[in-house]
Amino acid sequence: MEGGGQVGPTSIRGHGQLSRLRSSSLEIREKGSEILREQLDAAKNELKLKDKECERLSQVRNQLEQELEELTASLFEEAHKMVRDANVKQAASEKQLKEAQGKIDVLQAEVTALKTLVLTSTPSSPNRQLHPQLQSSGTRGSYKSHIRNKSASGAFPLSPAKKEVSIQPVSKEDREPAAPALLSLIFCLIPGQSVSMTYDPQWQKQIEGIGTDGRQMDSILFAEFLMWKEHPSLDRSSAFLSRIYREDIGPCLSFTRSELSHLVQSAVENNSLTIEPVAMSAVPMVKASAIECGGPKKCALSGLSRLCKHRIKLGDKESYYYISPSSRARITAVCNFFTYIRYIQQGLVRHDAEQMFWEIMRLRREMNVAKLGFYLTDQG
């Protein structure tokens, strides 16, 4: 009994210590899990803050990219505007310079003509034509009769004592549209003086050339161009290109050799035609017949005997065709037209619709001029 009573308290103490250990371990676990949960919540909050910061930085980046694009576009537009303004000012300055040079040439021509025609009068040798009071009564009456009837007679009477003065046209540099008015002024300055004038056709050409800058837009053509510009293409089914093919391209590329003309037109449309100068000393190396390809002195398109300084190549074919300057001008005019409408189709032309239209009308005029046989020489 005594031995059993001693063992009981010891076992109770052991159980108490074990229960305390268990409770302390549970507390440690609870505290550890609580710390881990706090760390996890802190990490989640930090991730949320970083996500918000990333989103804000992304918005800033997008805004900067948009501002950069707008700035680049505005810079290009401003540069284009500055270049356009500079070109306009340059053209105006050149026009004013030409006008000033023309006025100077006119004044020089007037001085030269007056020095040639006006007779000097000195006290020792007075000019009787400039001083009618020194003439005799008979001569004075004849002079007055001429003045009264000059509108009806239309000619200057010739006196035996008066010599004849001949007016020749001025040199090419001195020709101006004011030359006919100058001559009429000189005729009035020397009444009674017989004058013979050699007419120069260049005067009339220059008079007719005045005011050729006027232009008026054709509403039908402009409407067709606007419809084509909405969806630009090289398809000739549109009313705009169909008219140009019918009125300009077809006649401009219509040569005596009709089959070769069609091949040339197809090459121009496909942008596969090559024009190159010909070395006059080189021997032509072609594989086609001599009649078809022409030669340095025979145009392959017109069949006429002309000096051919250029030759063309159609696509990948190895044959060369010699062409005259007139044929080259006609082909070049059509190529210039196709190049411009290709630029419009590719969106490379930044002008407004009216400027594009007038440029196309200018290219059409070049095709018509070349079709009629006019072209610039190497010296021109």
From TrEMBL:
Family statement drawn from the similarity comment of this UniProt entry: Belongs to the SEC2 family.
A single cellular component GO annotation: Golgi to plasma membrane transport vesicle
Record keywords, A-Z: Coiled coil
Region (Disordered): 1-24, 120-145
Source organism per UniProt: Pundamilia nyererei
Coiled coil ranges: 33-117
One Gene Ontology term of the molecular function aspect: guanyl-nucleotide exchange factor activity
Pfam families: RAB3A-like_C (PF25555), Sec2p (PF06428)
Biological process annotations from GO: exocytosis
Composition skew (Polar residues), residue ranges: 120-142
UniProt protein name: Guanine nucleotide exchange factor for Rab-3A isoform X2
Domain GDP/GTP exchange factor Sec2 N-terminal: 32-116
